[in-house]
Input
Amino acid sequence: MTDKTDLIPPSPAEADYVKQVTEAEPLPLLPEGDPIALFETWLTAAHKSEPNDGNAMALATVDEAGMPDVRMVLLKDVDAHGFVFYTNLQSAKGRELAANPVAALLFHWKSLRRQVRVRGTITPVSDAEADAYFASRARHSQIGAWASDQSRTMEEPLALGKRVAEAGLRFGLGKVPRPPHWSGFRLTPQSIEFWRDRPFRLHERLVFDHQDGGWTTRRLFP
Output
């Protein structure tokens, strides 16, 4: 039997907590104001410190049976209107978001000891937005969007490679248009929670709630 202590470390001792905080980069107090501006500040820091994909986020949805689903996706835009990501509309997440247009996001930046949780409603991006982003992708990624039946059963291991080759031949050296089954979604936040690590699990939590066209703030016990 595997010794679980090799997989799951024990809770830190008091000296470990002190050492972690001493070695961590000092963080300013969380400001109360515009959550999107604060998020952009944290995202900029994450791009500098994370090993890869500082814009990676967990996306949680709900299927037709009420069961939750979660997976990692990449944030592709953020502004006052919300958080944007792209996908195959016929994938599991695409179908779930079309049927139940609400979702939650989680950004976890281990290098910074910070995380951000977002909950809100989902709307499709415009065709112009989707076209512009698709055009910015690498050509092989564009062809892959045509080739993959995302989330559906692949009957034999070479099926994807064959379909990639077929799509490559179809478009030749010409422009690869955006597939009709590929687009993006925007999550309009109703709440955004900022969390940062503090000694002895006494973490700092600040929640922004969107009400009556503006933001209110409240702090939570850890």
Remarks:
- The longest strand covers residues 182-196.
- The longest helix spans residues 35-49.
- The helical segments are 14-23, 35-49, 92-99, 127-136, 139-147, 159-171.
- The chain has six helices and nine strands.
